[in-house]
Amino acid sequence: MNKKKIEKAIKMILEAVGEDTKRDGLKGTPKRVAELYQEFFSGIKKDPKKELKHYFFPNHDEMVIAKGIFFNSLCEHHLLPFFGKVHIVYIPDNNRITGFSRLVRVIEVLAHRPQLQERLTSQVADVLMEALKPRGVLVIMEAEQLCLTLRGVKKLGAQTITTASRGTLKDDKKKALALALIKDKYLSA
Q: What pLDDT, on the 0 to 100 scale, is given for residue 189?
């Protein structure tokens, strides 16, 4: 990543909007934005499949659910953040599971690049299917898009929900059970 080039570009943007880049509050802004972008776009060159490690757990062929995983990303259309929660459900095959922190790492790698929520949701599901080879995967992403809340229609707090299902979790009955578990329908009783 070329941080000097980012700094130069941010300085040019500030000048283009009529700001004085030499005033106290803006002197360090180009450098700070370059450091922010280095973090926000840290997933660009990374392979998310390398984040997954397989473990074998005998006789486990039931749903594994990780819910409420916070994420943030930058919309590729306006370079504004979107953020929210991801819920992942997978059904292991051949006793092959992964650690919960590994699921989070996959999301982090994919979210830290210019993204669309729809693509991000599908990419998480595809990576899990390819790398874990489970019977099925369901990914649900709930997010607030700042390009929806700060510009255009300006609807603060509006949530967007996207899903991606693969394998046996495309089946309506299994998907309904997974959704009920995510909503705590069966866990609260």
A: 43
Cα end-to-end span (Å), the chain: 51
Whether residue 96 is found in the same domain as residue 114: yes
The number of beta carbons lying within 10 Å of the beta carbon of residue 117 is 20
Give the CATH number for residue 30.
1.10.286.10
Tokens of 138: 């369901």
Residue 91: C-alpha distances to residues 19, 20, 24, 150, 182 (Å): 54, 56, 55, 39, 14
Question: Residue 155 has which token pair?
Answer: 């609807």
| Cα→Cα distances 14→7, 18, 62, 159, Å | 11, 7, 54, 31
Q: What phi, psi does 15 have (nearest 5°)?
A: -65, -40
Amino acid at 6: I
3-state helix, strand, coil in the chain (%, to 5): 40, 25, 35
72 & 29 share domain: no
| pTM, to two decimals | 0.90
Residues 25 and 116 in one domain: no
pLDDT in tens, 9-67: 999 999 999 999 999 999 999 999 999 999 999 999 999 999 999 898 887 788 999 99
Instruction: Say whether both 146 and 102 belong to one domain.
Output: yes
Q: Is 44 exposed, middle or buried (0-12, 13-18, 19+ CB in 10 A)?
A: exposed
